[in-house]
Amino acid sequence: MTDASSRAAELLKEHRDSIDRLDAVLVYTLAERFKHTQAVGRLKAEHALPPSDPLRESQQIERLQRMALDADLDPEFAKNFLNFIIGEVIQHHKKHQS
Ligand SMILES: C=C(O[C@@H]1C=C(C(=O)O)C=C[C@H]1O)C(=O)O
Q1: For ligand 1, atom 9, which residue shows the shortest CA distance?
Q2: Which CATH number goes with the domain that contains 92?
Q3: What pLDDT does 91 receive?
Q4: Whole domain around residue 38: which residue ranges?
Q5: Is the pLDDT of residue 55 over 80?
Q6: What is the H or E stretch that residue 56 is in?
Q7: Is the C-beta atom of 60 inside 6 A of ligand 1?
Q8: Has residue 92 got a pLDDT over 80?
Q9: pLDDT score at 67
Q10: Residue 52 Cα to ligand 1 middle (Å)
Q11: Is the terminal CB of the chain with fewer CB neighbours within 10 Å at N or C?
C-alpha cells in the first residue's frame, strides 16, 4: 500500500466512524421524538382532537427550512424528511383513535 492509499484508508475510516456516531444520534433522537408524539397522540385521542394539525405542521416546516439553510443542508430535503416523519406520526395518531 502506498502512503497515499493508506492515508485515504485512514480518512475513510475516520469519516465512517463519524457517520456511525451520527446515525446513532439520529436513531436515538427519532426514538425520543416518537415518544413525545405518541404521548400527544394519546392526549388527542382522550380529548377527541384531530390527528393532524396542518397549521402546526406548516410552522414546523418553515422553521426546519430556516434551520436547514443556516446549517447548510438542502431545505427541500429537510422539508421532505420532516413531512415523511409527520406522515408516520399521523398514522400512529389515527391508530390511537380507532
Ligand atoms: C405531534 C403532533 O401531531 C401531528 C404531528 C406533528 C409532528 O410530528 O410534528 C405535527 C403536527 C400534527 O399534525 C402535534 O399536533 O403536535
Answers
A1: 86
A2: 1.20.59.10
A3: 93
A4: 3-97
A5: yes
A6: helix 54-71
A7: yes
A8: yes
A9: 98
A10: 6
A11: C
Q: What is the whole-number distance in angstroms between the Cα of residue 27 and the centre of ligand 1?
A: 19
The pLDDT, as a whole number, for residue 96 is 85
Percent of the chain past pLDDT 70, that is, above it, reads 100
Contacts of 51 (CB under 8 A, 6+ apart): 41, 44, 90, 93, 94, 96, 97
Residue 64 C-alpha cell reads as 426546519
Number of domains in the chain: 1
Name, in order, each residue with C-beta under 8 angstroms of 85's C-beta and a sequence gap of 6 or more: 30, 33
Q: How confident is the model at residue 97 (pLDDT cuts 50, 70, 90)?
A: confident
> Is the CB of 37 within 6 Å of ligand 1?
yes
